[in-house]
Write a structure and sequence with these properties.
37% of the residues lie in helices and 23% in strands. It has 11 helices and 13 strands. Helix 4 (134-141) runs antiparallel to helix 7.
Length: 263
């Protein structure tokens, strides 16, 4: 498999970093979930091979991209459009988004229908009402930096498996940092709040809803309604929870590959 090339662009003096997996295939813009980064799509890019050129940004406040003033939908969507413009991708592209990235993806498809040829929503609901929970509490206590990697892993507690892969050394060599600022993630979670049905139904391109059938983030009833109410939407139920791209990668990769092959 070819190595992904990392590039960046400037948006209002803010760096947006992205991976371009290259190749001769049609472009697929892939938006990762919260607390993740572009490298999460390395396996998918390998499976798609030369048929698709996967381009994945580290969305604002994630990975190697700079923090942003806010984490509302308009900002995430504007970043994606700026990346498409930067790459000179004027013709419609296929778009995939998982979790936070899925919400950003279908908002992008609704706001800029001429830029998107197909939409893949990976376990993202249309009814987002985040509540204070033990799961998010770890973000309130998680430090952004620490002298050692081990200290950050320990501070993450039960979320260590999620946090550890993205840890990276500070540029000045003084310690390590998390791949996202914890407060930014709390702000981003809160900014997802709302009923997004109108936006989900606004786009008309072919779509696929990939659903972890044991997901707490996307209930079965909601997934079925999203598929039924939006014309041209295929449904791919997979055994797994909300983290199905990572807990069932074979199923996830096959569902995406087969949908794209049928376009």
């Amino acid at each position: 498999m070819r190595d992904a090339m990392r590039h960046e662009l400037k948006i209002d003096d803010r760096t947006l970093s992205y991976l371009d997996f290259g190749g001769p295939g049609r472009p697929l813009l892939a938006l990762h979930g919260g607390m993740s980064e572009a490298a999460a799509f390395t396996g998918l890019a390998a499976v798609l091979g030369d048929d698709w050129r996967v381009i994945a940004p580290d969305q604002r406040g994630h990975g190697d991209s700079d923090r942003a003033p806010d984490y509302r939908r308009a900002g995430y969507v504007a970043d994606a459009v700026a990346l498409l413009d930067h790459l000179g991708l004027d013709a419609p592209v296929a778009l995939l988004g998982y979790s936070l990235g899925g919400l950003n993806a279908y908002h992008l498809a609704a706001a800029h229908p001429g830029r998107i040829s197909a939409l893949i929503n990976v376990d993202t609901t249309v009814e987002t009402h985040p509540a204070r929970s033990a799961w998010w509490d770890f973000l309130r206590d998680l430090p952004y930096t620490a002298p050692t990697r081990e200290e950050l892993v320990a501070a993450a507690g039960e979320a260590a498996e999620l946090v550890a892969p993205g840890l990276r050394p500070l540029s000045d060599g003084s310690g390590w940092r998390v791949a996202f600022h914890p407060q930014d993630q709390l702000d981003s979670i809160e900014a997802c709040r709302g009923d997004h049905w109108d936006t989900w139904l606004k786009s008309t391109c072919p779509a696929l809803l990939v659903h972890g059938t044991r997901s707490l983030a996307l209930p079965q009833e909601t997934a079925e309604a999203m598929t039924a109410r939006r014309p041209g939407t295929a449904y791919a139920p997979l055994d797994g929870d909300h983290f199905v791209p990572f807990t069932n990668p074979e199923g996830f990769h096959a569902a995406v590959r087969d949908f794209l092959a049928g376009l």
